[in-house]
Give the backbone structure.
Amino acid sequence: MNGQLDDELKYRTDEIEITETSFNLATAAEKTFLSFEREPQTYWKHAWKSLKKNKFALISLFILIFIILLCIIAPELSRYKYDEMLRGQENQSFSWNHWLGTDNLGRDLFVRIMIGTRISLLVGILAAGAIVIIGILYGAISGFIGGWVDNVMMRIVDIIYAIPTLLIVILLSVILKEPLTRAFDESAFLKQLSIFGPGLISIFIVMAALYWVDMARIVRGQVLSLKQQEYVTAARALGASNWRIITSHLIPNAMGPIIVTATFKIPTAIYVESFLSYLGLGVDVPMPSLGSLTSEALGGIYSYPEKLILPAVMISIIILCFNLLGDGLRDALDPRIKK
Amino acid sequence: MNNNIIEIQDLKKYFYMKKSFLSKEPVILKAVDGVSLSIVRGKTLGLVGESGCGKTTLGRTIIRLYEPTSGRIIFNGEDVTTVPFKPFRQKMQYIFQDPYASLDPRKTISDIVGEALDIHNMVQGKKDRAERIKELLKTVGLSSEHASRYPHEFSGGQRQRIGIARSLAVEPEFLICDEPISALDVSIQAQIINMLVDMQASKNLTYLFIAHDLAVVKHISDFIGVMYLGKIIEYSASNELYSKPLHPYTKALISSIPVPDPSLSRNRNRIILQGDVPSPVNLPSGCRFRTRCPIAQTICAEQEPPLIDMGGGHLCACHFA
Amino acid sequence: MSALLEVKNLKVSFFTPAGEVKAVNDITYSLEKGKVLGIVGESGSGKSVSSFALMGLIDPPGRIVGGSITFDGNLLTLPEDQKPTRKALRTSEEAQRSMRGNDMAMIFQDPMTSLNPVIQVGKQIAETIRLHNSQLSKEEIYQRSLELLTLVGIPGPKKRLKQYPFEFSGGMRQRVMIAIALANNPKLLIADEPTTALDVTIQAQILELIKELKDKIGMSVILITHDLGIVADIADDVAVMYGGKIVETGSSEEVFHHAKHPYTLGLMDSLCNLDDACTRLTPIEGQPIDLLNIPAGCMFAERCNFCMKICINEIPPTVVDGTHQTACWLLDERRPATI
């Protein structure tokens, strides 16, 4: 193999300053400066960075935060109550007094829409929360135990899947209305919840009872693949109990898909609630919901279209933003570990 | 009362698999097919073999990650084959091969190493726990500032050290090392080997060292067993295996190890085996090695050679050794 | 006498979000016809990347950022003075593609993932032949495929051609890969860790096979590996890589018996020869280099027991001793001969 000292290299070597100490041995201190470590990047930091790149998801997140803050703060600052009927001010249009006008009973529409948004978001997030808890437990246990237990549990899931859920929700919310009203009368604690109306509570119960199946399937899938991982075997070799393995190793590592699914469940819940309130099965008057506001405005659709459009647009924005956020989260939390 | 910390008697691990949807009879994978061995406290037994020989399965069965199909495991004189194993997990630990897969990516180093302490209730309070973790990290050559970091921030060699620290946390007596250095760079391998040797001396540990690399095993083992398709076919003191290998498979293994010296490498007598390893689902009749053996005769297909002592504790399973 | 392959000052970098990773940082070597070059290095040394560059297989975010590759008199990279315009890149890509699989072939480490699992083996071999010899008839291609399988020592080739990769064992699959590589009688075979995933006894078979074929066909071989033993067995010349640079190169005899670079010496010391009774291994302390934080001077400085002050700041020159070249300040002529 022939080679010659590259001319360029030789030239550069001549340029290097060589002092009398250049060839002394380097001290340990001089050597260690070379190994400064990169700033540690956790999974979440990395995910946040990726999410920021997705402009749609980021904007959606800000819009949602804005809406949430608005619907919490705005009604407190307004001088009108959501059920305050002002005689003589019915069906007003936009004005400085009433930013979004009034409805056919003289109630300030801005406050009502804000309260309605509160209700929708509350129902959506709480329902999603319940779905997450039930779904994770069910899916994790099913996936971890495996065998015939898993088989049976998943067949139950299949059956629930096959049920036309919306119909059942409607049916059950009608059926549960009476027992719930009675329960409210009997218990003082539950009386506080009665402000929402038995219709809404029953919607919540039914959604929690039926809508967890998606989450269960996803969690089960994750658990099935994760339990093959070597760190799970290592935990077992250490003597970890099954419960510890599930809660400490499997579920945390499945957090990505769990969060994404939960984010998508919120708009579903909001949609169901709005739809049912529109049908009159949800909130009790005078409590507003974005859905009930829409149905109230239906009567005056030709004269005052904006009273229908406003709540409808609000629902659409909320659902759209959650969906875009969910999409963005899905990409950001994707466990593509590149070395 | 002998000084054997662990004794395996005729251990078998079979996996029963269905051949296909239609076939009724299950296909049996005889991963470990009757292995007996014992290790003296404080010593190292090296277990060598190629893929499919069952050495990893054997290691995992001993530590009850798989339940044995038959046979006995005796630890410190006690039969632990079927008893609930949790208390023994403190005494027997396992080091995994893949440093990238064996650490939970979502846990900090402190949590990973401390998990063992938590499971077996070995520490009182947070301060004690932190102290202990610091000690353990120091033992394996890492510093306490590494404790709050995550596995992906470390190199392969460092991750393996974390895995070792985890195993040491419970203060075990017996350590099964499953190819702990195969996934590491050559220049790092020696670091880990030295560390294991030092730890053995200072803590009086006993090792079962599983490897496919005969060169590495030679350095660390007192005794070596060679496995092929689920059985031990040769067993002897470390040095004797290399100076006087008896089984044709061992001879072929030794001769196929690459030697980093061109003059030696090109001038030595190579035994190149023909063909591939048979599937453990379809074992050859008689001696399992006969399909690739350069000196196979008719008797090899008819009778399985027993593992017999050829003198001085050197065991070999071959009709013609 | 011109060499078959000449690599001059080759630089390959990957532009990641975390920064520029200089995977190959100025390497120069040449390969004669019929010879075997062993490139030795650990993870992060750049050995695999350099061979991918030869084959033109570097994909974004990586690219060749400097230097030249000349194969059989043809320049495979863009000439120094030429701007990387789209046209220029395309012509260069065309030149490379006709070379790839034809005069220059490559086999990879993991035969399981390198063969397409859903296509019959015979078809995969035929594809290579047809790509560069479109004029051959089906029958001729079939005959050639049979020939190739026999050449690599696979018994019962007629039956084997119709089988799928999963029906082959690891060693057999590697032979199939070699058959595909040899389909068009290449002048150069690049083998990237061809036996790392195989058992020791199978590894010996494959190495024997490569030796045989090399003599029979008269091709040159570049063998990339981390195993010094394999290199000692089969290579005529050796190049040792660390941190993207070649630290020592020479004939097999020179590098193994008269190694001069501290890294090479360290590697040999940390191995255990079967024949001598080593009581304690001498490892190389420290961790492999992080390619995102490249030191200003010698790549190996931090881990070197002989590191001098000049090594930390200045890139070591390549000191030439006939065919034996070493990149180390220890050998520089200006160094006082006290140590």
Summary: The radius of gyration of chain B is 21 Å. Chain B has a mean pLDDT of 87. DSSP finds eleven helices and twelve strands in chain B.
